[in-house]
Amino acid sequence: MQTARLLTVELLAANLLTVELLALALLAGCEASQPPPQVVTQQTTSRIDPPAEEPPGSPRPLAGPELPAPATAAIEPLAEPADGGQLAEETWDAYSIQGTRVGYAHMTVATVEEGGQTLRRTQGATQMKLKRDGQTIVQEMLLTTWETPGGEVVRCESRMKMGPADMVSKGRVEGQKLIIETTTLGKTQSQTIPWPAGSGGYFAVEQSLKHKPLKPGEKRTVSGLVPVLNVVGTTELAAAGYETVKLPTGDQKLLKVDSVIDLGGQKMETTLWLSDQGETLKSLMPSIGQETVRTTRADALQKLTGGDLDLLVASVVKLRGRLPNPLTTKRVVYRATAKTGKIRGVFPEYLSQRVLKDGEQSLELLVQAVRPQVPKTIDVEIVKPTDADLAASNMIQSDDPKIVEMAAKAAPMSDDAWATAVALEKYVAATIKKKNYSQAFATAAEVAQSLEGDCTEHAMLLAALCRVRKIPARAAFGLVYYPPQQGFAFHMWNEVWIGDRWIPLDGTLGRGGIGADHIKLGDSDLSTGSGLTTMLPVVNVFGRLEMEVLSAE
User: 100-114 and 501-505: which strand pairing?
Assistant: First the structure.
């Protein structure tokens, strides 16, 4: 069975909240009673030196300014920005998750001339190397904002590797709106979002804190653009007191700041430690155990040591008690307990699940299989499909010629939507030949070409095939029982609209539906980057839960 992993986008969103460019990033600054050694913030008037020519066979970097590829001795630094500019500032950060070094971030600030106008260009690149079930994934992102000297955003651009191809978003501010065009595999999708006065770009938090450092007891709200998700997020900052923090350059007294970012109702918490100059010298996201530390260029680019972090193993929610025949279970009652924080609100209610006994730290959760025509036993409001559940998008390219051809081949023409959907589910399970974790987050069109991947790739392709056949389809995500680890792993599957309800299907299984071994945390039509915000609850349960089987049938 092809099962779960911590979805790259969720991890990216979490890293964003660590305020350090970790792929979906809003950088944050810092403050302390003693100024940090200047070696950690390298100011210069020279440009970035280009790296030596890459040897044959090196991984292809992102388009535009190059991102480094993994090396045996050290990671290659960034090439000179394509549009030049006078470099004013350069910083390096090292990333670790659960004590394992997994990557770095490199940020530059430069002055550039465009159309007779002087702009400040802030650019950040991250690279992370992670494992899922023993297979290595390299995650790369490049973010750039262009602003006036007064800090008003003119335009922005993000480049991210979510699969074999790059996902590129380019935005421009026009009055009180931001127009964003996202391109994947040559397909461009445009969206317009409100642009409130005073909103910043990808680095809004970092810039705010450097412009005016926080003082103990002070609170501040900062609004900034979230990359890939393409929404304006609000970050609440609350400064506490000073603490002595261990850094690569030695112990320093830094100001501790609690940071909470709100992304359309989804909240993520991070702790920052700031210097007197308003720079973040350290940050920690407790939910995934991810730490960011300001360091030197040499340290940031060192070969990754300490072993590779295996996200599948690290993210498993252990289960007490047996779950016999998980694929055919019809009804299971679980007890879920939060090891840290509160559990209330973690599990939404759907036709497939209901909270029976709710508490602050523990609850009982009923999960059951759902099929068409079977009487509803859980009274809950059902959200009907929207146009986005049938439309083609950058991630679900249901208008791609290859996908249209596959949809016609996979199932005979029929007025029975359920029979068609089941045939498509079975087709996906049989057609994706290489069941592996080699893809980060490939789009449906990419999967149609490669015919490989894990749960996300199966879900992307199945959603696209269903939409071709005029069956509303969306992605569902949450937890699935994973026998090799005796617990629940993160997973993505699908839901299709049949009659008067959403019915789950799992393209990794091809069994005509799922059992009570799938616990849902949310769903998304994946219409735009903002649709990915609904996936953030997955990150919030990372390392926090314990599960127990109370009854099963």
Answer: unpaired
Query: What's the count of helices (H) and strands (E) in the chain, helices before strands?
Result: 9, 26
User: Residue 30, exposed/middle/buried by CB under 10 A (0-12, 13-18, 19+)?
Assistant: buried
Tell me the three state secondary structure of residue 339: coil
Nearest-angstrom CA–CA distance, 466 and 47: 50
**How far is residue 185's CA from residue 403's CA, in Å, rounded to a whole number?**
14
State mean pLDDT over 465-490: 92
Q: Which pLDDT score is estimated for 345? A: 83
Q: Token pair for residue 189?
A: 């999708």
Domains of the chain: 8-306 (no CATH), 316-552 (3.10.620.30)
Q: CA-to-CA distance for 378 and 368, rounded, in angstroms? A: 10
Output the six-digit token pair for 36: 């940090």
CA dist 363 and 547 (Å) reads 10
Q: Around Cβ 80, how many Cβ atoms within 10 Å?
A: 15
The angle subtended at Cα 218 by Cα 215 and Cα 223, nearest 5°, is 110
The candidate with the shortest Cα–Cα distance to 505, out of 532, 534, 471, 482, is: 471
Q: Strand, helix or coil at 539? A: helix
Residues 6+ apart with CB under 8 A from 186: none
| Stretch (H or E) spanning 153 | strand 153-161
Angle between helices 455-468 and 401-410 (to 10 degrees): 80
Q: Count the neighbouring beta carbons within 10 Å of the beta carbon of residue 404.
A: 17
Residue 240 CA to residue 31 CA, distance in Å, equals: 12
Q: Which residue has the tokens 């005016």?
A: 212
Within 10 angstroms of residue 134's Cβ, the number of other Cβ atoms is: 11
The pLDDT value given to residue 303: 72
- Residue 269: count other Cβ atoms within 10 Å of its Cβ: 16
Question: Cα–chain-centroid distance for residue 326?
Answer: 28
Q: What is the tens place of the pLDDT at every residue in 189-236?
A: 888 999 999 899 999 999 999 999 999 999 999 999 988 778 888 999
